[in-house]
Design brief:
This protein is α/β, with parallel strands linked by helices and about 280 residues long. The chain has helices spanning about 10-20, 35-45, 60-70, 85-90, 110, 130-135, 150-160, 170-175, 215-225, 235, 245-255, 265-280, and strands at about 30, 50-55, 75-80, 95-100, 115-120, 140-150, 175-185, 190, 200-205. The strands form two sheets. Strands 4-3-2-5-6-9-7 form a seven-stranded mixed sheet, sandwiched between helices.
Length: about 280
């Protein structure tokens, strides 16, 4: 069956007119119209025939079509109730496509994707961080997460200690994956063009580099440390309910200068600090 290319400005405009669609700003919708970008995303995800792929927010099927043509078995989760009817037509005939209507934050992803899978998605900008944390913090069989996000978010995901944009998101991503920015995507690649430049980030999932006994406690310490990032660690960590005495003692045992701020700590230092604080808190 012949399938017209969706990643084309004329084809996209035709689909939008036919189904009387407009990009819904509240859902972070911008329709990709650049076939070269689709190919680059598929290359970045190293898609091979037979790969199981979870796509979040397939829209009218632009990226989905590229994944299907590459031989992937795609499960797409879509929240917008107007789009399933569109996808039924634009992706008609693809036997390797499965559509799930619903909210990715409420769906049991482990049950939906029981075998090893990759995530490839153009994430809605307004909810990017929540989706990323959901994918990374649950015990899923995911091997690679390739997402298009705002360039600012991509830079935060891959930021290193000492950077002003290094924060809790950086640690959450890098604790569970090797992350890198693959390439940037200009506004002209979308219809309508967003006001920001996008970037595609590749996260190769791996075991955490440092053992953490209680990940929830580790996350609590990290978030508390960055909640008031201009303050030194003894002052910022008191916001998590730790006594100043315990904080100072834990810092000393961990070999961390109490005059430092959260943005200067490495993953390993946060792991050591959280373990020491947990021992003192038990």
């Amino acid at each position: 069956m012949f399938h017209p290319l969706i990643a084309d400005p004329s084809a996209t405009r035709h689909i939008l007119r036919k189904f009387k669609l407009r990009a819904v700003k509240g859902l972070g919708q911008n329709f990709l119209i650049d076939a070269d970008i689709v190919r680059q995303i598929i290359d970045a995800a190293q898609i091979e025939s037979g790969d199981e792929v979870l796509e979040i927010g397939p829209g009218i099927g632009t990226l989905t079509q590229g994944l299907l043509e590459a031989g992937a078995h795609v499960t797409a989760v879509e929240l917008d109730k107007k789009l399933p009817a569109v996808l039924k037509e634009t992706l008609e005939g693809y036997e390797n496509f499965r559509l799930v209507e619903g909210d990715i934050l409420k769906i049991d992803i482990a049950a939906l994707m029981p075998r090893r899978f990759k995530v490839v998605a153009n994430l809605p900008y307004y909810i990017t961080t929540q989706i990323l944390l959901t994918l990374l913090e649950k015990n899923l069989s995911v091997t690679k997460v390739v997402t298009m996000v705002q360039r600012e978010v991509a830079e935060r995901m891959t930021a290193l200690p000492g950077s002003k944009i290094y924060g809790a998101l950086s640690i959450a991503v890098q604790f569970r994956s090797e992350a890198r920015i693959a390439f940037e995507v200009p506004p002209k690649s979308f219809l309508p063009p967003p006001e920001v430049t996008s970037a595609v980030v590749v996260c190769d999932i791996r075991k955490p580099p440092f053992e953490v006994v209680d990940e929830n406690f580790f996350i609590k310490v990290v978030r508390a440390a960055f909640a008031q990032r201009r303050k030194t660690l003894p002052n910022s960590l008191t916001g998590a309910g730790f006594s100043r005495e315990k904080i100072l003692s834990a810092l000393e045992i961990s070999g961390i200068d109490g005059s430092r701020r959260a943005e200067t700590l490495s993953l390993e230092e946060f792991a050591n600090l959280s373990a020491t604080l947990q021992n003192k808190n038990s």
